[in-house]
User: What shape does this take?
Amino acid sequence: LLSQASGATYEGLQLVVQRGLEQVTYTSLCLPDDIRHRGMSNIPNYHYRDDGMRLWEAIERFVTGIVTFYYGGDEAVSGDTELQAWVMDIFTNGFLGRTSSGVPSSLQTVAELIKFLSMVMFTCSAQHAAVNNGQYDLGAFMPNAPSSMRHPPPREKGRAFLQHFLDTVPEVATTANILVTLILLSSQLQDRRLLGQYPEERFTEVEPRRLIRAFQGRLEEIRDQIEERNYLAELRYNYMNPQETENSISI
Assistant: This one.
């Protein structure tokens, strides 16, 4: 569907992904660092930041409890060969060994492990929800995000008129194809697993179970805060509501 509805070929999409990957850094993946780096700490009514930081802090607190329960100190982290192999695999195959990305190829301390796991959890849950869940809401009105153009954009002011615009944006069949794609991407799966839900019950010890309950309780508080704000808002921002945020990227 993407190749049929997009102006880019498969090779073109690969080039876009390649160029995008070149811009990805560890800083951009860690929300507190990313917000500071982009100078967005004090922008008012920035719901992505506000909701995202609540989720990041909840995830980080949960990860801290789990990590410190299973790892007695820095030596346990640096000496965990399976953990180190996992991190190296992500660095090598996920980030193509790019040291310029700042993504670590090994972890030596408990603090480094907590930050790395928080980044992974946040990226696969809250960050994905923020990027994915609103695609249909924003793209259903095709001029908001046309998937292709039939003519180059105008280069001079005052030379573009309604008919030129209509001749440039995608025609009906192409628009229908991209809308189907957006519907599929934004739809909720019947067997979805929300952030903080672990039906497999892999954790059997008392302390990890307590940490999971505390994590779930904090997520419920964040849900209530978001829904209270949305109730009074003219334009709702619900994409990072824990009630709409899955544990992982499952599309």
Remarks:
- The chain has twelve helices and no strands.
- The domain at 2-244 is CATH 1.20.245.10 (Lipoxygenase-1; domain 5).
- The CA atoms of residues 86 and 161 lie 55 Å apart.
